[in-house]
Amino acid sequence: MITTHARGDVRYVTLDRPERRNALTPEGLDELAHAVETADEPVVYLSGAGSAFCAGADLDVVADLEDGREFAERGQRTARAIERADSVVVAGIDGPARGGGLEMALACDLRIATPEASFGEPGVSFGLFGAWGGTVRLPRLVGGADARDLSLTGRVIDAEEALRMGLISRITDDPETIARETAGNDHHALALTKNRLHDDSSIETQEAAEASAFAELIDRYERP
Fold it and tell me: Sorted alphabetically, which SUPFAM superfamilies does this protein's record hold (predicted)?
């Protein structure tokens, strides 16, 4: 389900189930979390094999679930593993990102799309909703109005509309380039900056931690 290899300072993690548009099973979720958590490289590049980024949860698996809560929590754990990874995680989105696939992308630090990418939370059309953190991360990222529009209508949007919403960072023919460029930055600064950007404590606590992290970088700093 998940393939991984390193090239330079980038760990390439691929959702590799193209015959099912990279739909995620419970085992696939665990493999994805492990691949990201064990990466030693400063940047992880997450992409999908074939013509899709990820169709979301495998609906054949969903139809036979005995414990929906456990499946939801499993997906949430994987999304948190991506969000909290020491590495900066860049999603390279080419083709459809639907449901759980979109939710995995939401947990990434950067979402870079090709012009052929498309996005949707179609769960309501078949009696479900995005339970891998989708109802939490999506409104935080794009705002309540756009999050409700996507989640309650189930409509699909293209890369241009996703960029307007703030759902993605950029549109490019080669998202991998952004991962390589990001990996060219100072690795220690990348890790500390990611940590600071994900801090959701009080402003005063964040500012104190920010000052401490900056001091740590200054102690290592050498003028170019």
Answer: ClpP/crotonase (SSF52096)
- For 10-27, what is each residue's pLDDT tens digit? 999 999 999 999 999 999
- Domain total for the chain? 2
Q: For 159-173, write each residue's pLDDT tens digit.
A: 999 999 999 999 999
Four-residue CA torsion sign, 206, 212, 216, 217: positive
Q: Is 30 in the same domain as 87?
A: yes
pTM of the shown model: 0.91
What domain range is 196 assigned to?
Answer: 186-220
Q: Do 172 and 203 share a domain, yes or no? A: no
Mean pLDDT of the chain: 93
Residues 109, 26 share a domain: yes
